[in-house]
Design brief:
The complex is a heterodimer. Chain A has one domain. In chain A, 72% of the residues lie in helices and 0% in strands. Chain A is elongated. Chain B has one domain. Helix content of chain B is 82%, strand content 0%. In chain B, helix 3 runs antiparallel to helix 4, helix 3 runs antiparallel to helix 7 and helix 6 runs antiparallel to helix 7. The two termini of chain B are 22 Å apart. The relative contact order of chain B is 0.15. Classes of the chains: A mainly alpha, B mainly alpha. At the A-B interface, helix 3, helix 4 and helix 9 of A face helix 3, helix 4 and helix 7 of B.
Chain lengths: 190, 157
């Protein structure tokens, strides 16, 4: 993984990365956009999940939720990804080695898999159970998994800001290994 | 006049405990953020519907009634997590423009949501004109967005 480390190092030395990192307002504005879009993306995903579990909008067919709410969730997701990439680009090397960033990346993959399984599985037959209460087990399971995963993603995303486990600090070996730290790395905030 | 009050709030046991802990502030803050996503979604869904977007096949009143407990519940989570965060840095908040902006917007947003917006959202279909619905939704979006942005910017100041 050393080659990714050097790639992040090169990224960190690009003009735009330094400009973002050192700007007084740009970084904060991008982060505010990220937080605002969180309401649209996670907020609407939560509504869809709660419907899949059967807790809200019980009279609304699931296909109406996926047809009319999901497109907005996708808009929110695009904004989240773009603003998230910019935030990463502003602090690439430290973020790459950040434990919470790595946890978040793994959770994002799991959330993606969960959505993939739902859409290619039980949702294909949605017309058979559109208004069924309780919804089928597979739909409820997808909703619960999604709720847990997105809450954990928000949680770990928020914690990326903290430098408790940065490389160069004294860490248990397991943490160092997970963060991809090597003994020669120094704490970027020292 | 308010400064001594803020000073004593900062000196409170809860404020003290959070300041002395490495983990407490970030964890409470993360819960505040999860609460934000839920309240954001619940508010946006009704505002979008008033704007003529989203779940158009269903009456606004029904969506608003369904979401009411989630709005109230997430406001409780936001207050329970927000107050300790505030107590840990009350004096900083006193001098923070973002904090006062957020609090002003929050009071207005809550008042607006539980009076005008509630009346419009729960009214029978067609009682209010689409223009009026859109104006209410836009006002709500601006007020709640200011609360969110103001909150995020407390951390930047």
């Amino acid at each position: 993984m050393m080659f990714l480390h050097s790639a992040m190092e090169r990224l960190a030395n690009t003009e735009w990365s330094i400009a973002l990192h050192e700007s007084q307002y740009a970084y904060s504005i991008v982060e505010s956009v990220h937080v605002w879009a969180l309401c649209l993306f996670v907020g609407f995903a939560v509504l869809l999940d709660l419907r899949l579990v059967g807790l809200i909008f019980r009279g609304v067919p699931v296909s109406h939720m996926t047809g009319r709410i999901l497109p907005w969730t996708k808009v929110g997701f695009v904004v989240m990804v773009i603003s998230g990439v910019v935030l990463f680009y502003a602090i690439p090397l430290r973020t790459y080695h950040n434990v919470f960033f790595r946890v978040k990346a793994v959770l994002l993959i799991l959330a993606g898999l969960n959505a993939f399984v739902f859409h290619n599985g039980i949702h294909r037959r949605v017309s058979d159970w559109d208004l069924n209460l309780p919804p089928p087990r597979a739909a409820k399971l997808a909703g619960v998994c999604s709720l847990i995963l997105w809450a954990a993603i928000v949680f770990s995303g928020r914690l990326i800001a903290y430098n408790w486990f940065d490389c160069g600090k004294v860490q248990p070996a397991l943490v160092s290994a997970f963060a991809g730290c090597t003994p020669d790395m120094i704490d970027p905030y020292q | 006049m308010l400064l001594p009050l803020f000073e004593s709030l900062e000196a409170s046991a809860i404020g003290e405990a959070i300041r002395n802990s490495l983990w407490l502030f970030p964890i409470v803050e993360a819960f505040h953020l999860i609460g934000l996503a839920v309240i954001g979604g619940a508010i946006l869904a009704v505002d979008f519907r008033l704007l003529g977007l989203g779940l158009r096949s269903h009456p606004v009143a029904r969506l608003a009634r369904d979401l009411q407990p989630w709005v109230l519940g997430s406001i409780v989570v936001m207050i329970l997590s927000g107050v300790p965060l505030f107590l840990s840095e009350a004096i900083k908040c006193y001098y923070s423009f973002a904090f006062w902006t957020k609090m002003t917007a929050l009071v207005l947003a809550i008042l607006f949501t539980f009076t005008v917006r509630r009346a419009v959202a729960l009214a029978p279909e067609g009682r209010f004109s689409p223009v009026w619905n859109r104006a209410v939704a836009a006002t709500s979006l601006v007020l709640w967005s200011t609360v969110g942005w103001g909150g995020r910017w407390i951390g930047f100041s």
